[in-house]
Specification:
Blueprint (H helix, E strand, L loop, with lengths): L1 E7 L2 E8 L3 E7 L5 H12 L4 E2 L10 E8 L2 E12 L2 E8 L7 H7 E2 L4 H4 L3 H11 L3 H31 L1 H24 L2 H53 L1 H47 L1 H13 L2 H6 L10 H95 L2 H81 L4 E6 L5 E5 L2 E3 L6 H19 L5 E4 L8 H14 L2 E7 L8 E4 L1 H6 L1
Parallel strand pairs: 3-13, 8-12, 12-13
Antiparallel strand pairs: 1-2, 1-5, 3-14, 4-7, 5-6, 6-7, 9-10, 10-11
Length: 613
């Protein structure tokens, strides 16, 4: 087996070391590099990706460690990494002796070994826990335990709060009873004496105030009606004034009507004259007709008529008809009759037109009179409504005045009644009211406290359930952890006693971990405690424990490495110890300080050569 170290752990350049199967003693003066070989083996077994800056030789940026073993090469490269002001060494591995971090803590016993650093009952328990691979289980158990303790602490605090608030419900009930008593007392006082009278007067006052308000509402309604009536009066008055302006037209219509009637009367008179003329014409025509037949009698008739002419008599004029010959008279009368007919027809037509105009004028007159009548009737109705509203408003105003007088009177009576009330009673009432107010304020605060108490109780109940679940989980984890730890303890005790028997470590008869995970040892038949061990004894115990752990868990692993912690072993003890070690591991590598301070690193192979040396 060959180990190559280049620019690592204080060794500059490349250095190769060869090891044979069995025991290999690295003999070297102090600070000459023997520990560097052990650290190189530890690095090959270490799973960490970062090392301290001292892992690389000072000034070097890259280093390498390689182990050739059974046809395989295990190596890693070291590089310096700057992270701000901090400098560390990064590790990149192409292959590793073991992917199990626990191996290093068992097969490499040097100053960095946890039991070499501190050999106590607690460190032995932690070491046993580590090699039994129950660290994560222990961490889970501790985390669950811490959570459980936190929950219990919180529950205890909540219980303290509940205890502190426990008085609130009883106190609230007590205050409620006290408040009810105060209210009953106040009610009894209110029912007595002047206060009862005042209450009655206030009831009357309220009724009057309500009636005043309703009367005001009714009065407003009446005022609205009055305003509407006044508005109607104004509108109808304006309409009437407008119609009165049109009375001249009405007078003209009446005058025209009279004129038409007069004309019609005249025309009717003219028609009568025409009729008489027609009658005279007919008489003349008959006489003339007869005169042609009987000339003698006709002439006499005509003479008579000529001496007294009916036309002249009718129109009171002298037509001199008697001076006109008979034949001419006939023509004249015929002509007069034709003209008279024309006059009659014209008069008849004019009469018809006048009658139609009279009918139109009569219709217009009737419409104007009807409109005037309606406006006057509407005006009358509006005035009637106005009067009615005014009377009602005056009546309501009178009622309102009476109600206000009553209101003032009752207020005055209330004032005098309150003045007459007993001062002692009023003081007592005020005191009770203040007491009720104080109780109410306390009740409010106590209700908040009761709500808080209920909330705390609910929270406590939830926490208790949660704690019960956590305790169950914690107990399961603890049982599993302890079962595995005790199994590891029993296995360790078995292998430890096997090591003690085979090593024959002088004086030590017992090396056991008891059920409380305390180390029990006997030396020369007497119990001995860890604190009583010398440094070399403590180192020997650390080696024995690590060897027992290797036999128990990594028996087939080919390496077991011990640094200079065997320095203080006496030669006989050292040789017997080395003999047993070499039987338990394919390669056993032990460092030993060389008395030759000028020499370099030497590797001695086999127990015989070491004994010769």
């Amino acid at each position: 087996m060959k180990l190559m170290i280049e620019n690592a752990y204080g060794l500059k350049g490349s250095h190769t070391f060869e090891f044979d199967k069995g025991l290999n003693i690295i003999s070297a003066p102090n600070a000459s590099g023997s520990s560097s070989i052990i650290k190189a083996f530890a690095t090959l077994l270490n799973q960490e990706l970062l090392l301290s800056r001292e892992a690389l030789y000072e000034g070097a940026q890259v280093g390498r460690i390689a182990l050739s073993f059974e046809g395989k090469t295990y190596q890693c490269e070291l590089k310096r990494i700057a992270n701000g002001a901090k400098v560390s060494v990064g590790v990149s591995r192409t292959s590793s002796l073991s992917n199990d971090q626990i191996v290093k803590d068992i097969v490499v016993v040097n100053e960095e070994h946890p039991l070499v650093k501190s050999l106590t009952d607690e460190s032995i328990r932690e070491y046993l826990q580590h090699i039994a691979r129950i660290d994560s289980l222990y961490s889970q158990m501790l985390m669950r335990e811490r959570t459980l303790m936190d929950k219990k602490s919180k529950l205890e605090a909540i219980k303290q709060d509940i205890k502190r608030l426990a008085y609130a419900p009883a106190r609230l009930e007590e205050l409620n009873s006290k408040k009810m008593k105060a209210l009953m007392e106040k009610k009894e006082i209110e029912a007595k004496g002047p206060i009862a009278d005042v209450k009655e007067l206030r009831g009357e006052l309220k009724k009057i105030v309500d009636k005043i308000n309703s009367t005001k509402v009714e009065l407003e309604s009446v005022k609205t009606d009055l305003a509407a009536a006044l508005s109607s009066i104004e509108a109808n008055s304006q309409a009437l004034a407008s119609l009165k302006k049109d009375e001249r037209s009405l007078e003209k219509i009446a005058k025209r009507e009279a004129e038409i009637k007069e004309e019609i009367a005249k025309m009717k008179g003219s028609t009568s004259v025409r009729s008489r003329l027609v009658a005279i014409y007919n008489a003349f025509a008959s006489l003339l007709n007869d005169a042609m037949k009987n000339n003698g009698e006709a002439e006499e008739e005509l003479s008579m008529i000529a001496n007294g002419c009916p036309i002249c008599s009718l129109f009171k004029v002298d037509c001199n008809l008697g001076d006109i010959p008979i034949n001419e008279r006939h023509k004249l009368i015929s002509h007069m009759l034709i003209e008279t007919k024309k006059v009659r027809d014209k008069l008849t037509k004019s009469l018809d037109e006048l009658n139609r105009e009279l009918a139109t004028i009569a219709g217009e007159k009737e419409r104007s009179l009807n409109e005037l009548k309606k406006v006057r009737e509407a005006l009358y109705e509006a005035k009637r409504r106005q009067k009615e509203a005014q009377e009602k408003a005056e009546a309501l105003m009178a009622v309102l005045r009476d109600l206000k007088r009553s209101e003032a009177d009752i207020k005055k009576r209330i004032g005098s009644t309150e003045e007459r009330a007993s001062q002692e009673r009023l003081i007592k009432m005020e005191k009770i009211s203040k007491e009720i107010g104080a109780i109410t304020a306390q009740e409010k605060e106590l209700k908040k406290l009761c709500e808080t108490l209920e909330e705390k109780q609910r929270e406590a109940s939830e926490l208790e359930k949660n704690i019960a679940t956590l305790e169950s989980q914690y107990q399961l984890l603890k049982d599993e952890y302890l079962n595995k730890l005790h199994a590891a303890r029993r296995l360790f005790n078995e292998k430890a006693m096997e090591v003690i028997r085979n090593v024959g470590y002088k004086g030590f008869e017992k090396l056991q971990i008891n059920e409380n995970f305390e180390m029990e040892m006997k030396r020369n038949g007497m119990p001995i405690f860890l604190s009583e061990l010398s440094t070399s004894e403590a180192n020997a115990i650390a080696i024995l424990i690590s060897l027992a752990a290797k036999i128990a868990y990594f028996k087939a692993f080919p390496l077991f490495i011990i640094d200079t912690i065997t320095t203080h072993f006496d030669p006989s003890k050292f040789l017997k110890f080395m003999d047993y070690l070499s039987s338990q591991s394919e390669y056993t590598i032990v460092t030993r300080l060389s008395p030759d301070e000028q020499g370099g690193i030497k590797i001695l192979h086999g127990l015989d050569k070491i004994m010769q040396k």
